[in-house]
From TrEMBL:
Presence of keyword Transmembrane helix: yes
Pfam families in alphabetical order: DUF5687
Source organism of the structure: Mucilaginibacter xinganensis
Keywords from the named record: Membrane, Transmembrane, Transmembrane helix
InterPro entries: DUF5687
Transmembrane segments: 23-47, 59-82, 103-132, 138-159, 171-193, 199-226, 282-298, 310-331, 352-374, 386-405, 426-445, 451-470
Protein name in UniProt: ABC-2 type transport system permease protein
Length: 492
């Protein structure tokens, strides 16, 4: 049956109206992956030299054993972000005498064709052959290859399992990413654990006891079985839909959003869109990484100036407004025609955007408050730029949204995806990044920085308190361009 599924997928590919575009993309991606493979292979051949320079006082094999868990931890994080879920148009087969186990096995098998599963062998095989096989023999080298295969399979199916669960609940993805980040911080920043010691504890013993290589294989087998059961239980789309309906509360039952009525309901749907789709979710995840910008600037006396703090604070508290907002309305491209003919008032639609940006910017402000350790003035600047983001920048983003006609397909991944990108993004970035300095800059040049900050705070508050006025202006502007936007979103 697997060969039959392959033939059907190939026919679906060649009969698609976007075959030419798909081939061009695959050729470009294939060349890029080939280039990366060559670089990784070269790195693998010289891995012993890198390890000697990185750990000059440690044994070479000990250093190699110590980095393997680091690699697989990073590999899991990268898979959660970039690895695509294997797909198959299941509905036609459900009406045919095709066993569900065959469908699930096909999905499980095709997931092993990911390039992620080749990286560890390309990177580590030269070292194992050159060093470990020479020093410890072919049996130990084979044990290392088996261990790498077992951990690769484990990561492969664990990532797919988490991503499938995250499609139902976006918080699962964030929780998994947070656990991986905390493990890394516990080693590098807080020094509570040592991943190198754990890694050497296992792989160091594989050298003396090659039979331990069976353990990663067992882990991979268990993870495959869990993934297999989950797919089998949720193969029927109607069953999956009914479980979602029973498991999740409606948006009006959210404690924070219920008080906003229909606006809260629209904002809740926006949050679901963000956390359930890869590309929109990547905008939020990037915002979490930007939170570490403060450590780069505030800890460097040469870069820790008040003018630069204005930019850094605006960037940290408003990165989501900038990154997600530049594609505003494109996120709803697939159902934009439905919004035009629905009973939803566009004013409520815009208010929901304001509410969503305010909630996420507030969350990022809370994450940046520990930077008050470097001075209370930094916290004051962060609060002012937070007000600027939810007042001025949000309004600018929604204004430019009425001039964005590029659609985004949420079913596609975030990696190397330039869909929806146009010149508008470049035009939008300039006023968002430069506007604060138009008002703050002259005062900074005259050494009256406090007056400049006060002016930014006043302008921000004026925009916030006159939000109803700006919503009416945005609504009027939208109605003059709605059909042009809808036509652009229909072009695939």
């Amino acid at each position: 049956m697997i060969s039959t599924f392959f033939r059907h997928e190939l026919k679906a590919f060649w009969r698609s109206k976007n075959t030419g575009k798909s081939i061009a993309i695959r050729v470009v991606m294939g060349l890029l992956i080939l280039y990366l493979f060559i670089n990784v292979l070269v790195m693998g051949f010289f891995l012993d030299k890198f390890l000697e320079k990185a750990f000059p006082h440690d044994d070479l094999v000990m250093s190699f054993c110590g980095i393997l868990l680091f690699y697989f931890l990073f590999d899991l994080f990268a898979r959660l972000q970039f690895q695509e879920l294997p797909t198959l148009r299941v509905q036609p087969y459900l009406q045919l005498p095709v066993k569900r186990n065959s469908l699930v096995r096909y999905l499980a098998f095709t997931s092993l064709l990911s390039v992620f599963n080749l990286w560890p062998f390309v990177l580590f095989a030269p070292f194992i052959v050159k060093i470990i096989a020479t020093d410890s023999g072919a049996v130990v080298a084979l044990a290392f290859f088996i261990s790498l295969a077992g951990l690769t399979i484990f990561n492969n199916y664990l990532a797919l399992y988490l991503k499938r669960k995250a499609n139902l609940n976006g918080w699962i993805f964030l929780a998994a990413a947070a656990v991986i980040i905390l493990i890394g911080l516990s080693d590098f920043l807080w020094h509570l654990i040592s991943i190198r010691k754990f890694s050497f504890l296992f792989f160091g013993n594989v050298i003396t006891h090659p039979a331990l290589a069976v353990a990663p294989v067992l882990l991979g087998t268990v993870m495959y079985y869990l993934n297999f059961l989950y797919l089998k239980e949720n193969l029927y789309l109607e069953e999956l839909g009914s479980r979602k309906a029973a498991k999740y509360k409606s948006s009006t039952e959210y404690p924070l959003l219920s008080r906003f009525g229909s606006v809260g309901d629209l904002a809740a749907n926006e949050f679901k869109l963000i956390f359930r789709n890869k590309r929109s979710r990547s905008a939020f995840i990037m915002g979490l990484f930007i939170m570490f910008y403060g450590l780069i600037f505030y800890t460097n006396p040469k870069m820790n100036s008040e003018s630069l703090s204005v930019f850094v604070s605006m960037f940290m508290t408003g990165i989501f407004v900038i990154n997600y907002g530049q594609f505003m309305y494109s996120w709803q491209a697939s159902h934009f025609d439905g919004l035009l003919v629905s009973k939803v008032k566009f004013a409520d639609f815009v208010r929901a955007k304001y509410l969503m940006f305010t909630i996420i910017s507030t969350f990022f402000l809370l994450l940046t408050t520990p930077y008050a350790y470097f001075g209370w003035k930094i916290l004051v600047i962060e609060v002012i730029m937070y007000l600027w983001n939810i007042g001025v920048n949000t309004t600018l983003v929604l204004f430019f949204a009425n001039r964005n006609y590029k659609r985004i397909d949420l079913s596609k991944g975030a990696a190397f995806n330039w869909e929806g990108v146009s010149g508008n993004q470049w035009i939008l970035s300039f006023p968002l990044l430069i506007a604060p300095y138009v008002f703050y800059g002259p005062f900074a040049l005259l050494h009256h920085e406090n007056a400049g900050l006060a002016l930014l705070a006043v302008i921000s508050l004026v925009f916030i308190f006159t939000r109803s006025f700006w919503i009416k202006k945005l609504e009027t502007d939208f109605y003059t361009k709605r059909y042009t936007i809808a036509e652009g979103f229909r072009n695939k």
